[in-house]
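This entry is retained here.
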Amino acid sequence: MKFESYIMAELLHRLEQRGVGLQSRALGIATALSRDQFADALDATKQLVVMLETVVLTHATLRGHIRGDGMGELGDSLEEVGLRARGLVIDTQLARLEVAFRDGLVRARTLPWFVGAVESIDDLTALVRARLQGIHALWSAYRKDHPQPRAMSTTDREAMCRIMARVAQRALQDLGSEPELAHFLRHALAASGLPEIQMASRQLADALSVPVDDAACRRLESSLRHAHAATNANAADVTGARTDGPPTDHERRPG
């Protein structure tokens, strides 16, 4: 893969930040409009357009490099793009490590890097790939190209896909804390005398540690709930005013 993994990791981080920012900005526009603050709404809209252009460009760049990951048609959600891009980076770096460890001297020198049930680089890469497959299984069952679960609406399925994608993102971060992998990475990241292994391990660690802004997501979800409640209250007020107002022509007309 010619596309450098550290660039992909940076794009993923940017996409994660922009994704939350977009929704927050859109909510701000809606709030400003509801209060007749049109100048503020216009300014926020201009900022939203700039952010959207960045997201579209980043999204397209990532999509162009993930089509060959063997997981089928790529969906449109930022969560799916992020997960599959991170998975591709991880798999690519595992392959680099497997090649680097073909050297017998390297294998002999790095024996202390492997602990527990992991006794070699093959054991380690098999462990990580198995965990990665399980993480993808958390959300992929709810994709639109999979059979829809019975008694689940399309809206519910889309919501579940996003929720489980968030769970999967957190699980990817937690993967870096697996004892066998964490032990290996501590040694590999300090191995300046083995630059290929050190670089592959650095990019592997970066892909695992792409931050998930849970606090921002919780703030956004809370704001959306409040906005939804306010919208319902306004609609009730309008309905009540219409009911309490003067009778319409239809109401005046004898039955």
Summary: DSSP finds ten helices and no strands in the chain.
